[in-house]
C-alpha cells in the first residue's frame, strides 16, 4: 500500500471499465482526474454519490477534469448501474482489489459486530502532472461532489 499524500505521485493503474475496454491513469496525464471510490454499485449511498458526480459532469469537463468511479463490482454490474441511472461518468472495476489496496481504500470494516473487507468511501483529486492534489477519506456523500468540483476548479 502506498501512503496517499498531497504532492505525492498517484499510483498508476489500468482497470476494466464500463462498456468494455480499460482506463489507465497515466493515459490521462495533462488532465485533472477525480477518483471516487465507492463500496457497492446500486446501494443508496453509492447511488446518491454517483448521481451527484454525474449531475456535475459537464462542470467537471469544463474544469478539464475526468471523473472515474471505482468499486470492486464486476464490469457487468457497473454497466447495469450506469444504464439504470444514466450516469455521465466512467465506472471502473477492480475485482482483484490490487488497485484498491494500493490506494489504501480496501480496509477492514465492521457492521453489527461482523468484520469484513470492503471499500472505504474515499475521493482523490489528481493534478495534471499526476500528483495527488487532495484526498477526502471517509466521505460523507451530501454536498461532496460540489466540494470536489470546487477543489478541481481551484487547481
Short description:
By secondary structure, this protein is α+β, with helices and mostly antiparallel strands. It has helices spanning 44-55, 57-62, 75-85, 98-102, 144-154; strands at 14-17, 22-24, 32-37, 65-71, 90-93, 106-111, 114-119, 122-126, 132-136. The radius of gyration is 14 Å and the shape is globular.
Q: If you had to describe this structure to a student in words, what would you say it looks like?
A:
It is a single chain. This protein has 155 residues and is an alpha+beta fold. It has one domain (14-154): Glutaredoxin (3-Layer(aba) Sandwich). It contains five helices and nine strands. It has a seven-stranded mixed β-sheet. Strand 6 (106-111) and strand 7 form a beta hairpin. The chain is globular and about 40 Å long. The mean pLDDT is 94. Belongs to the peroxiredoxin family. BCP/PrxQ subfamily. InterPro entries: AhpC/TSA, Peroxiredoxin_BCP/PrxQ, Thioredoxin-like_sf, Thioredoxin_domain.
Amino acid at each position: 500500500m502506498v501512503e496517499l499524500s498531497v504532492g505525492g505521485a498517484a499510483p498508476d493503474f489500468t482497470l476494466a471499465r464500463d462498456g468494455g475496454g480499460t482506463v489507465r491513469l497515466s493515459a490521462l496525464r495533462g488532465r485533472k482526474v477525480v477518483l471516487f471510490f465507492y463500496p457497492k454499485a446500486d446501494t443508496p449511498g453509492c447511488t446518491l454519490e454517483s448521481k451527484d458526480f454525474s449531475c456535475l459532469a459537464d462542470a467537471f469537463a469544463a474544469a478539464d477534469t475526468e471523473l472515474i468511479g471505482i468499486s470492486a463490482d464486476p464490469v457487468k454490474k457497473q454497466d447495469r448501474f450506469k444504464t439504470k441511472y444514466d450516469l455521465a461518468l466512467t465506472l471502473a472495476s477492480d475485482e482483484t482489489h490490487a488497485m484498491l489496496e494500493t490506494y489504501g481504500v480496501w480496509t477492514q470494516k465492521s457492521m453489527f459486530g461482523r468484520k469484513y473487507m470492503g471499500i472505504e468511501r474515499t475521493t482523490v483529486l489528481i493534478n495534471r502532472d499526476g500528483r495527488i492534489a487532495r484526498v477526502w477519506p471517509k466521505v460523507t456523500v451530501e454536498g461532496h461532489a460540489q466540494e470536489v468540483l470546487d477543489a478541481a476548479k481551484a487547481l
